[in-house]
Write a structure and sequence with these properties.
The strands form three sheets. Strands 1, 5, 6, 7, 9, 12, 14 and 15 form an eight-stranded mixed beta sheet that branches. Strands 4-8-13-10-11 form a five-stranded antiparallel beta sheet, with no helix packed on it. By secondary structure, it is mainly beta. 0% of the residues lie in helices and 52% in strands.
């Protein structure tokens, strides 16, 4: 079973003849010169050291994150602190002179096994170092549910937050998974992960470019 749930304050997906139009994709063409990333830090209970990788996309449109141990559980054999897991990425994006960028949208994929009465939450917020803009996006899931899930965070063009031109600002992406066993049988474990299977991409963050 595959589910796609998108309940978010900043979400502005428009269904048009069965195709999702992502408003955040408007903007300048990606620069021809390759971007590079410095991963300043990867911290959190959902990404212990050595369990997450960040790599730029070859076409300069963003970067991908692969997680290997991002799993939240509740009920049954789950420990008392396993119901919430998070991972904060702090990356410095080196971009060609004359350009700046914003996070236009991000795709997330994972697996869920939620018993009847249980619920899950995926929350992400994005912000540049020193910026007052620190918005978050929530996606909620309700049991019974078993299978893969996919969500998309998309920011309307009018609400895109670009890094200041000519300044190096670290980008922070903080993602959280939370599981509530609710009225589920206490002997059964509900879980959500930010991982589909070996070799699958779990998260892709897409940029909108602007010339300075």
């Amino acid at each position: 079973m595959s589910v796609r749930l998108t309940t978010a304050r900043l979400l502005s997906l428009i269904a048009l003849t069965g195709v999702f139009v992502l408003p955040g994709t408007a903007g300048a063409e990606a620069p021809a010169d390759r971007i590079t990333l410095d991963v300043v830090s990867i911290n959190g209970s959902g990404c212990p050291p050595g369990t997450a990788d960040v790599t730029p996309l070859a076409d300069n449109t963003g970067f991908r994150v692969t997680y290997r141990d991002f799993l939240a559980r509740a009920g049954g054999s789950a420990g008392a602190t396993e119901f919430r897991k998070n991972c904060q990425l702090n990356v410095l994006v080196h971009i060609p002179q004359g350009f700046t960028f914003a996070v236009a949208y991000a795709d997330y994929h994972g697996r869920a096994r939620l018993e009847s009465g249980a619920s899950g939450l995926q929350r992400t917020n994005y912000y540049f170092q020193g910026s007052p803009d620190n918005n978050f996006v929530d996606h909620t899931f309700a049991g019974p549910l078993s299978g893969t899930w996919s969500t998309t965070d998309a920011t309307p063009v009018t609400e895109l937050v670009y890094a200041p031109c000519g300044e190096a600002r670290n980008l922070n992406v903080n993602t959280e998974l939370r599981v509530d066993e609710g009225t589920a049988n206490a002997n059964k474990t509900s879980a959500m992960s930010m991982r589909v299977s070996d070799g699958n991409v779990d998260t892709i963050v897409h940029f909108s470019w602007k010339q300075c």
